[in-house]
Amino acid sequence: MDGKHRLVQGRPNQPPSSMSSFVRIRRFLFPVLAVLLVFRGLYHISGRYTAYGKQIVTKRLVPLEAHIISKCPDTRDAMRELILPVMQRAYDKVDFKLNYIGSPTDDDGVECKHGPSECMGNIIELCARELYPDPKINLGFIMCLTRDYENIPGRALVEDCALEHAIDIKAINDCATKDDGAHGIELLRNSVVETAEVRKAHNIGCSLATLCHAMIKAFSKDMP
């Protein structure tokens, strides 16, 4: 009886099976939580480091504008002697805009100095810039056209230059003729209006060479 009594008395000193399971789970859970907390801390540190790194490498692009017309020898000279040399040296440091010279009309159209064919040439070049915003592509295409400016907007010239610079000629045609030509006219009109605003703001004359040179000189002085 005494032995039996001692055996019965000894049982309450042993933890119940459910409590024993909890103890085992707790022993396992604490290390896991500790590891998770460490990884969470590393994640936040990494996130802050990445965000900080991005902030460090952010660069301010210098605005640079040029204003041209497609069927003109002055454009060829300005592209060759002013625009391309600057872009070759600093294309990754500037926010480059290329706009066109013309006169907005009362019927929401545009009058170009060398007539409708020049307007069409301007639209083709604007479409190239819209579809291919990388200056290395669109300026190469535009310079290709400009070298033979007298034949702008001849189909053979446009197709040859598009092929040379890996530009989709169908996409260019679709852009220029979208909405029965309204999209192309809108691109040109917006560009012409912006040129007029720049000329007025900087008190620049209407000479193409003067306009290109003045704008590049004005904006290039801020380049790092």
Automatic annotation (TrEMBL):
Q: Which UniProt keywords apply?
A: Glycoprotein, Membrane, Secreted, Signal, Transmembrane, Transmembrane helix
Transmembrane annotation, as ranges: 28-46
Q: Where in the cell is it found?
A: Secreted
What species does this protein belong to? Answer: Moelleriella libera RCEF 2490
Which superkingdom?
Eukaryota
Q: What family is this?
A: Belongs to the GILT family.
Task: Spell out the protein name for this chain.
Answer: Gamma interferon inducible lysosomal thiol reductase GILT
Gene Ontology molecular function:
oxidoreductase activity, acting on a sulfur group of donors, disulfide as acceptor
Spell out the GO cellular component terms annotated for this protein, sorted alphabetically and separated by semicolons.
Answer: extracellular region
